[in-house]
Amino acid sequence: MTNIGAKGLTGEGYEGHYFWDTEMYMLPFFTYTQPAVSRALLEFRYATLGKARERAAVMSQKGALYPWRTIDGAENSAYFPAGTAQAHINADIAYGIKQYVQATGDVEFLAAKGAEMLFETSRFWADLGHYNPARGGAFCIDAVTGPDEYTAIVNNNAYTNLMVREQLLYAYEAADWLRREYPGDYARLQHEMGLSAEEADGWLEAAEKMFIPFDKALGIYAQDDTFLSKQKWDFGRTPADKYPLLLHYHPLVIYRHQVLKQADLVMALFLLGDQFSLADKIRNYQYYEPLTTHDSSLSPCIHSIVSAEIGDLAGAYAYFDRTVRMDLDDINRNAKDGLHMAAMAGSWMSIVNGFGGMRQYNGQLCFSPALPEQWESYRFKITFSGQLLDIYVGREAAVYTLLEGEGLEIRHKEQTLRLSPQEPVRVPLAKRLEAVIFDLDGVITDTAEYHYLAWQALADELGVPFSREKNERLKGVSRMESLDIVLEDSGLSLPEAAKLRLAEQKNDHYREMIGRITPADLLPGVPELLDSLRERGILVGLASASLNAPVILERLGAAHWFQAIADPAGLRKGKPDPEIFLQAAELLGVTPGNCIGVEDAAAGIAAIKAAGMKAVGIGSPAQLGDADLLLPRAAELSAEKLLELIKP
Prior knowledge:
The structure is a single chain. This protein is an alpha/beta fold and 648 residues long. The protein has 24 helices and 20 strands. Helix 12 packs antiparallel against helix 13. The radius of gyration is 27 Å and the shape is globular. The relative contact order is 0.07.
């Protein structure tokens, strides 16, 4: 029983040792092309489970802890901050088991071997973590290192906690499944490892109470408890010959900064993609990508995959190019020590998971293909549930052909496709206008004066200065962010509860005023535009920062035109963040690239562009110059002009 070394058989780098490279990079390739090899790789981990139990005991923990670096199952890593502390390898192996079983249907492996690995490593996590009163009783995991080896020995590494949560939920489900479907194997594990229903219930509780660090101000997941409080690395003053950093700076120097060796939280965005909104992915990627050195060859392919998902195909191709040429161009200047096996696998992942957008969530195979401008087309084949599927992606369409098998159901973006043997299914990829997402104030109607008067009334009551100039800054901004602007330079320092009361007080003024609204307050040309869009089968959504938007639409008699209204109360970040427009597109079931946003504020135009949509500005060129189409008033907007922006 063997594994695949980080350098394969091509050189003496890493002395032939095996790492997490196998489960996170090489295993996916084999799972979807040669699943028998995947099973053999997982069986290596099963064969070394005894030594993983021994390692956990050495670390004064229950269960099993797999080695970070090994040949025969024993831990061979000498530098524990970037070795044994990377306990996430347990969750990585569990993830590999889940993906393999769900992709192949090999439940016999799960019953005979996989479940035992799951349960022993879950026992380790339950023992390692603790319910922390300082975190409201949340389950916390301390003193670990995540994938980023430039940040070591931290509490609550987000990647680790997210992956452990995924593992514990799967272990709980697997225990229940094993008890019902394979009672003999369940009884065996009860006898051999003392498994009990109560222990499995404990895994579920830990998963449900898992602490995931999140920064509300930035709207991003914190890499760990302290990462965001550190000083950012000064990349501008770091010469090119000082990379990789670990060869030129003491580890403590690196540990004190916000700087990453490789994808960490960004990797979780890929692996656990169904747990994050597109807005989350954009926001987190844009924060962590500039801080990442890619000093590890494992990093570029993950960034390529996530870049493709968020619509940055140029960035995705650049990272793909770096991955595929890692050893051809000796990018990391260490090809003499052997080739990078994970980068080879990562090249395949960049195409299949990146440009092909392939994901597998709970046994459902999903695709969201895109074509980089450097290519005319690409094609790949995968096996899934014992069936062989061919995927072709060209400029005009994606074509799915079931070459072998009895029938397969897959997802293409928002569509469910049912494939029959040897019957190609063609799905157009050319962009077309499917939805228009409007702001409310200044686009559909004009309640800006009511907002101004309501804020002015509140400012007068507080005795703070307020002007129409300051009011302009409130356009497209949430109520609480608007209040902060109103209170600027007031000298008032108010607790959150008091600010919430003031915001509600302003809203009371505003709601009283909007009670006067009637259908006559629709801006000229808007009813005709909305009728025209409906006649063409183009969906309409609303992306307003106003919590009162549904009430206003009802009073305008306009609600029947809108198929979706984004809820600003549930947003992590307001405009210029793209979340509200992405939420509206998701509610409409439309790809953002097939949407147009219409706004009258600079923050709104920025939000639309960040969402990957075409932007129409209604108002002044001085403020809305970044719009793809600029018009002085809504009355000049027509369905024909919108259709011109997105041509098939």
